Amino acid sequence: MPPTVLTSYAVPPQPPEPAGGSADLPAVRVRSARDLVAAVPHLLGYRPHESLVVVCVTDESVLGLVARVGLDDLAREVVEPPAGRERAVDRLVAAARRVGTTEIVAVVHTARDPRRIRRTVDPALAALELAGDVEPWIVTPEGYRGIDCSDPSCCPPRGRPLAELEHRAVNAALVLAGRAVAPSAEEAYRIVPASEARRSRAARAAARADRARAAVDAAAGALGGRSSGAAGSPPSSPSPMPARTPSSMPSSTRTDAARRASSGYDLWCDLVRHAARELRTAPPGGTDLPPARLGRLAVALAEVPVRDAVLLSTIPGADEVARRTARGAADLPGEAHARTPGDAGPGDAGPGDAGPGDEAFDVEAATARAIARIVDPRVAVRPDPGAVAAARVVLEQVVAHVPRRWHAAPLTLLGLLAWWQGDGGLAAHRLAAARAVDPAYRLAALFGGVLSAAVPPGWVRTREVARGADGGGRGLDAADPSVG
């Protein structure tokens, strides 16, 4: 397995919203390389262990990228260079170049003998020079120092006290900006299970919804001449109706399946609106959604059309294609789809898309246009913070409430949202958890290839082509990173 390079791209601030809308948090100014060394745990969200962390400052003097790779991965590549595939350090260099890097602060976090670590990190540091000027540091349990500093008054052999890093002003500013530090990545990314009583209610609701789904699938399988699989667990390589096509299904069965998927997507939209209200009014961490509805949503997400519609619903302008995707090819006869603003889903109809009553609406073409807004640098958009925050709350609460066998779909969606936001570390963790639940989950396998190649979301490559059009860098301003 190739080593994982966890890349987190800095999202440029959005322009202030009109009429008193919320603007981005004020930038946190970083005045020295030591400030960036101190900021690393806050930027990652956890304290790294046995890692090389690369912090890239762009030609606009803003933070563009934070990337982490394990020292053991680098060491294996030194001993046995990979044949026929890209090295981890090559992916680091490519990622750094995408954001217009000019300065790199490379920080080695290790509890091992620093003299032995040089054999592992020196080739990586030399390669990073291809992307920008590199200033290397090392942080050990005893202290921190510049790797190449030979002045004992500046960097004693055993390093300067770690307390100097902990008490720098940039740390306080990052804490005020909401960047907490967990003791490990596992702790930072952990989804805390709900209480036993809430989990029990959600599990009972999921079981009821699954029995109803199984009854419909069994009837469709009998009428269509094929088996639709066993009840009681989500499909391992999910397809909402794997053995049936609309033309081979009786019209009543198509209608039942379409209504079920449409109902699942409506449930998602209701819970997202609920979460958005809670995020505006509830204290941090105080968002509680109805357990029974979360249980029903978990079963709905096992249906590919519902899962795909949920992903589409987070993309600006893709609400109509999301709804049609949830219904699948089996349209609900006679059903009106016009919406009022109060009934709208998480997204809005995009320009140039056919309206709800347009029979010529091309679902595949509209889906391609929507996905392009995530992956294609020519048309890519940044995720809407409010919409993604509400979606993440719903998906995380599904994971916190329902039995583990239903986790693959919500965890994969959480990984995709994290990747779109530029957080490769969180994306990789969610994807690994999804594949641990179901190694054959196809969307997770496809997404795994994207992460393994360290491919960034489209808005990162948009900045690569037209750097400077958006300005800024996720609330961290490296005013003078070269100052020691």
Automatic annotation (TrEMBL):
Pfam families per record: DUF4192
Source organism, top-level taxon: Bacteria
Biased composition (Gly residues): 344-355
Region Disordered: start-end pairs: 1-23, 220-259, 325-359
Extent of Low complexity compositional bias: 244-253
Name this polypeptide is given: DUF4192 family protein
Biological classification of the source: Bacteria, Bacillati, Actinomycetota, Actinomycetes, Micrococcales
